[in-house]
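Q: I have 80 residues here and want to know how they pack in 3D. Can you give me a structure?
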Amino acid sequence: MPDETLPDTWTIRELPILREALARLDSGEGHPEMKEIGEARGIPPLQLTAGIEALANAEPHTSTSNLLAVGGRIATRADG
């Protein structure tokens, strides 16, 4: 029977997205562009979208559950 274990996306996708977004916010850039985050971390657009959706829908809900992709930018639901 083949191994049907799903790959760990946290360390290769969600965590790098979160780190890049927070680094840009902490540097005073404001809400970073999704495209810039993907390019900086080498994450293709479809994987970037999937990673942001995974962060937004993570259980248990944390502050990352307020993340949205708005017009190509990372924003919080309060900013939406």
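Q: Anything worth noting?
A: The longest strand covers residues 67-70. The beta strands are 67-70, 73-76.
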